């Protein structure tokens, strides 16, 4: 059997971005893929190791003989600084050679988000790294907002007129896989990735309405937004942070600069929002009679 080039540990394999990275990596037989998480994903037949980022005792066994780590930042990390200091220390002890971290694109209010802390710990760690910083995933429509769109025909979101840059996580997954394959040109750098469109939620709902032939409305009520976040399992502290960040962003007049980093690497244009909605038309279509109000 041909010797595998690298042992790559994929954290968050079931996350939006993790699934896209796994999709591309599964087609490339030159590396040994190891999934690290709290639960094995049933779709893929790769080696699985238990890894709970909230439990430092799971780090060493998950990182044994790993060359490259693809790291995501799960929302519910209890102590960001301690967790990632320890995780990076164990990476070094276990002779991990490189780390690729999926962060988020910088904005004026990035200091609110914990990703910054993780980025600076990675930079100080002495490990080879690449930080990939994408904008907002289109897949939030088919995950986070899916029930709202399908069952309630409305999206609860205050500050709906602020422009967001939308990117297809599949495009991001493609770039991350390229870097996992060969980091040489991206070593110790940060790459921001954007899609081609800055659109507010009103425009997105108009597109959904046109494609799905059902009215998808905006519900700008803050109480309803908080209720929907609670239903999605966010804790009070996560909700408070999200609200501060969300309002700060929506009052900010700065707009996201679009870059062509994806096009330079993939040699094609990023997915358009319309194309994404068409690709997911059956996921977004209503499965039961809609209720007209969330309240
Ligand atoms: N969503 C966006 O629009 C967006 C935009 C830009 C960048 N990003 C970045 O992309 C990355 C992934 O985001 P996402 O939205 O794709 O994530 P997600 O769908 O919320 O998934 C989070 C992942 O983390 C895992 N996880 C949760 N708690 C864990 C723990 N204690 N230990 C180990 N694994 C744990 C979850 O798996 P289990 O629960 O099964 O363990 C899941 O696979 C993050 O770094 C995020 O900052 C996201």
UniProtKB/TrEMBL annotation:
Signal peptide: none annotated. Gene3D superfamilies: NAD(P)-binding Rossmann-like Domain (3.40.50.720), UDP-galactose 4-epimerase, domain 1 (3.90.25.10). InterPro entries: Ergot_Alk_Oxidoreductase (IPR051604), NAD(P)-bd_dom_sf (IPR036291), NmrA-like (IPR008030). Pfam families: NmrA. Transmembrane segments: none annotated. It comes from the Bacteria. Residues 50-219 form the NmrA-like domain. This is NmrA family NAD(P)-binding protein. It comes from Flammeovirga kamogawensis.
């Amino acid at each position: 059997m041909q010797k595998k080039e690298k042992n790559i540990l994929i954290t968050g394999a079931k996350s939006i971005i993790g699934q896209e990275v796994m999709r591309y990596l599964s087609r490339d037989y030159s590396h040994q893929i190891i999934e690290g998480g709290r639960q094995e994903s049933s779709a893929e037949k790769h080696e699985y190791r238990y890894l709970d980022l909230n439990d430092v005792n799971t780090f060493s066994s998950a990182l044994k003989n790993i060359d490259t780590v693809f790291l995501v930042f799960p929302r519910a990390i209890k102590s960001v600084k301690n967790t990632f200091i320890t995780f990076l220390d164990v990476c070094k002890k276990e002779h991990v050679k490189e780390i690729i971290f999926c962060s988020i694109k910088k904005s004026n209010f990035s200091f609110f988000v914990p990703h910054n802390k993780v980025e600076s710990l990675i930079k100080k760690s002495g490990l080879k790294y690449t930080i990939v910083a994408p904008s907002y995933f289109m897949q939030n429509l088919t995950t986070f907002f899916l029930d709202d769109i399908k069952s309630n025909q409305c999206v609860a979101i205050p500050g709906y007129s602020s422009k967001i840059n939308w990117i297809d996580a599949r495009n991001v997954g493609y770039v991350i896989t390229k870097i996992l394959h060969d980091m040489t040109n991206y070593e110790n750098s940060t790459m921001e990735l954007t899609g081609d469109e800055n659109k507010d939620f009103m425009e997105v709902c108009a597109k959904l309405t046109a494609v799905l032939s059902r009215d998808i409305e905006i519900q700008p009520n803050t109480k309803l937004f908080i209720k929907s976040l609670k239903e999605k399992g966010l804790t009070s502290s996560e909700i408070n942070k999200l609200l501060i960040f969300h309002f700060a962003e929506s009052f900010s007049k700065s707009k996201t600069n679009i870059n062509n980093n994806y096009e330079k690497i993939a040699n094609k244009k990023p997915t358009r929002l319309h194309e994404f909605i068409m690709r997911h038309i059956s996921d977004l279509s209503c499965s039961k009679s809609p209720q007209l109000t969330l309240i």
